[in-house]
Backbone:
């Protein structure tokens, strides 16, 4: 492949991304890097991609791209989300080449890589580990704060990134029905009403009481003992340390995944889990079901997911 031709193509492709697609500089550079990386790999190891030594753009096919993506996954240890974004950027480049008449056909137009979703392994007795995680007395502000963040992730089904952005909690009075929300969570995008167990509400009250001693309503919601803000990275570190003490190895997102699994083991249905955990497709929830997913779909009654961590 002639380097001069590639340079011209990339210059015109960048202009296309800016003028016709309207992409920002950072996005344009990402698309260009993806296309260059793939073509560089084709030049470096054409035999491994089943390409002729003097290959041209029309020689590139879906098989070459699939082998390349599998190489990134296995050898480079790329995560599934990064692979998906990378593949999308390369597909956009081929669409541009076809539109410009630089290739006779678009070989990857229908490419839909089937990436395996990875769910971290959890130890035996995971429910017992979660009970230990929330068991005992919390003590001061730091353990109360950590339990409260974990309560939002496990007890309310918040993704960790969402729990870190909470700006306030307001228990709702008079919520005595089993399925009625009993807590309003304040976020920048608006309030979010959820239901916690009695023990979960107790953890809310405990943290609010501890926080009131060092911070006012206008201060950041997650605070240290001196009233200074507790950032996302430090909150994640607190949760990870607490999980390790009870034998749960993984990131805070593991709690969110266990919430879905334990919810469905208690009789929750897939549609409720999808709503509570923010999954776009029912298929994304099937890995949490240990029975036929259709059985969950037959359950019409929506129940609160976790039933408590106790």
Residues:
């Amino acid at each position: 492949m002639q380097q001069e031709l590639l340079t011209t193509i990339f210059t015109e492709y960048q202009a296309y991304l800016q003028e016709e697609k309207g992409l920002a500089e950072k996005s344009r550079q990402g698309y260009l890097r993806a296309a260059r990386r793939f073509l560089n790999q084709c030049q470096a190891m054409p035999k491994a991609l089943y390409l002729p030594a003097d290959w041209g753009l029309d020689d590139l096919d879906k098989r070459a791209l699939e082998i390349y993506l599998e190489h990134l996954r296995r050898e480079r240890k790329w995560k599934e989300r990064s692979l998906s974004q990378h593949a999308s950027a390369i597909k956009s480049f081929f669409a541009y080449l076809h539109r410009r008449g630089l290739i006779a056909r678009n070989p990857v137009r229908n490419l839909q890589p089937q990436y395996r979703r990875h769910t971290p392994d959890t130890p035996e007795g995971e429910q017992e580990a979660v009970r230990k995680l929330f068991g005992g007395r919390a003590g001061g502000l730091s353990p109360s704060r950590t339990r409260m963040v974990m309560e939002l992730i496990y007890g309310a089904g918040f993704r960790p990134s969402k729990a870190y952005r909470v700006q306030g909690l307001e228990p709702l009075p008079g919520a005595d029905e089993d399925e009625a929300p009993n807590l309003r969570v304040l976020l920048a995008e608006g309030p979010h009403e959820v239901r916690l167990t009695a023990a979960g509400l107790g953890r809310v009250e405990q943290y609010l009481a501890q926080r009131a001693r060092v911070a006012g309503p206008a201060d950041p919601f997650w605070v240290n003992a001196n009233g200074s803000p507790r950032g996302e990275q430090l909150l994640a570190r607190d949760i990870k340390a607490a999980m390790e003490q009870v034998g749960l190895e993984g990131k805070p997102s593991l709690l969110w995944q266990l919430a879905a699994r334990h919810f469905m083991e208690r009789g929750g249905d897939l549609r409720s889990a999808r709503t509570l955990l923010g999954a776009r497709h029912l298929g994304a929830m099937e890995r949490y079901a240990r029975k036929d997913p259709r059985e969950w779909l037959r359950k019409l009654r929506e129940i609160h997911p976790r039933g408590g961590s106790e």
Summary: The radius of gyration is 25 Å.
